[in-house]
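Q: Can I see a sequence and its folded structure?
A: Here is a first one.
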Amino acid sequence: MMKSTLSVTTVDDTARIARVIAAELRPRDVLLLTGDLGAGKTTFTKALCAALGITETVTSPTFNLVHEYVGGRLTVVHCDLYRLERTGELDDLALDEARRRGAVLVVEWGDLVPDAFDDALVVGFEHAAGDARTVTVSWRGSNWEARFVRLSDRLQVGTTT
């Protein structure tokens, strides 16, 4: 499997990655965002929604678990799985229903339920030295397989493996 690894030092760097990914999004896509607290998942989501033309204020869904943003090129359902206590609670969030309606799912802490999303673009955020971050973009399943080479080329990153 291919992956792209990027070094980012500013919010603008993160926003550029989000814009490139937003251009590739289609209805019913899933983005799994992974990484520690404060690593950049919500910052990325804000930039992604802006790139899709969503003008609503995007906030972390940590306490509400799910926010839906409409009005852009695509509807975005932004969820945070950090506070889920059991896998069964995932069904209560109605994410499958949102996808059937054509929404793009942006799932923070998607790695906490690894078997729930078998076809997704995975964007991992890691703290690096100072304010820098390492962002790793990879995929699983067949939905992103054909698009990933083009996406990786557009990201123009330092390392693609």
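Q: Show me another, different protein.
A: A second, unrelated one:
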Amino acid sequence: MGVVDHLTPLLGRWQGTNRLRLMPTDEFRSSTATATIGVTAARFVSIAYTWSDGDAPQDGLLLLGGDDDAAGVWVDSWHTGPTWMTFTGGIEDGELRLRGSYPAESGPDWGWHIHVRPGDAVLTMHNVVPGHEPYQVVELALQPMR
């Protein structure tokens, strides 16, 4: 099954909650969120979402595609700064799992994982510090917009 078919249950407009933490010992901070998910250029899924960091509105975009193997690009006004991140991955255990990396200030690159679970309309993001287990940084839980 390709990415478009796998993510078809998520097509449409959504609202929900974004939860964010920086470090694994931090408490999650919650904000309201929205998402618009659609098919683009017949072979890709776009996930455009909004959330806030305190009073500061934020937004992001994922563009995902592929058949047996998945690929994606991601930008977010808070997380990625002026660059985008690229990802590869696939569908495992009912979720789309993507893996990418970004440069650290010093030492080896750090990893970033994005998981999209269409069965319960949840997107999670995980930071991967070299030598440590990934830890969840973001949870975007969605419900259909009314």
